[in-house]
Amino acid sequence: MKGSEDAALKARLKQLIVTETDKQVDPEQIPDDQPLFGPRSALELDSVDGLQISMALQMQFGLRIEDPKEMRRVLASVNTLADFIQPA
User: Fold this and answer.
1) Residues 83, 4: Cα–Cα separation, whole Å
2) What is the reported pLDDT for 40?
3) CA–CA separation, 5 vs 24, rounded Å?
4) Domains defined for the chain, CATH in brackets
5) How far is CA 81 from CA 6, 30, 54, in A?
6) Segment 18-75, tens digit of pLDDT
7) What whole-number distance in Å separates Cα of residue 64 and Cα of residue 67?
8) 7 exposure class (CB count in 10 Å sphere: 0-12, 13-18, 19+)
9) Model confidence, pTM
10) Distance between CA atoms of 36 and 75, rounded to whole angstroms?
């Protein structure tokens, strides 16, 4: 099953994002397909948040992404992150 189809994985990722960025938001309110960064983002995450999330992903999932462009692509939304972690 592709990560974007796995509700449990996406719930875990949303909780990780909220915890690591200290956002006062209900993880269930984070849209799966909305941008996590940038002007259209409901969370208003910045580069420091991205670093914190990437470090947490490394610790919890063993993921290490060195290329900043790849990291931006992976962290585009909850769905893209889930698909990266759990490809089809």
Assistant:
1) 5
2) 82
3) 26
4) 3-23+31-85 (1.10.1200.10)
5) 12, 13, 11
6) 999 999 999 999 999 999 998 888 888 998 999 999 999 999 999 888 888 999 999 9
7) 9
8) exposed
9) 0.93
10) 7
